[in-house]
């Protein structure tokens, strides 16, 4: 049985038994927060439990490394929509220790792409067209610095409400312990925007 078949079989039973009812909520986050975190599999259940979040409490945006890599990319758009349209009042950027993005080697990724059938010449074409593949695929060296940079990118975005606290945290994917890297309330107080 394929993964898709197993998922669809389970889903049919899930709907038939009305199991969805215990997850009913609205599209607005009860705790009025939006979280940008990593797509790491260890965080799927751990992060919400470590933060005492239940279904409906937060908007959660996920990306490789919890990075805000482009000021006008889909990650930043999602955060802005959460703030202006979906009643989120705070932003949490949450990276994690032992992140795969801290060990990304773009040459190895490109070799893996080629081994799966991507024409190596395409990379030269993209480079000549001005695409910085190294920068686009590259992760980071230090998760705390990466969280600081992403929090800074959100906080200083020209379209971000300057009164919204932007917090930076790092979670331990083994224990769930959260370390505060940047307290958004303190940053607002220091800037006189509280």
Textual characterization of the structure:
- The structure is a single chain.
- By secondary structure, the chain is α/β, with parallel strands linked by helices.
- The chain has a domain at 26-104 and 139-191: 3-Layer(aba) Sandwich (Beta-carbonic Anhydrase, Chain A), CATH 3.40.1050.
- The protein is built from eight helices and five strands, in the order H-E-H-E-H-E-H-H-H-H-E-E-H.
- A five-stranded mixed sheet has the order 2-1-3-4-5, with helices on both faces.
- The longest helix is centred in the first third of the chain and has 14 residues, at 3-16.
- The termini are far apart.
Mean pLDDT: 95
Number of strands: 5
Strand % is: 15-25%
Question: Percentage of helical residues?
Answer: 40-55%
> Helix- and strand-based class?
alpha/beta
CATH homologous superfamily label of the domain at 26-104 and 139-191: Carbonic anhydrase
CATH fold description of the domain at 26-104 and 139-191:
Beta-carbonic Anhydrase, Chain A
The gross shape turns out to be globular
* DSSP helical segment count: 8
Strand order of the largest sheet: 2-1-3-4-5
Order of helices and strands: HEHEHEHHHHEEH
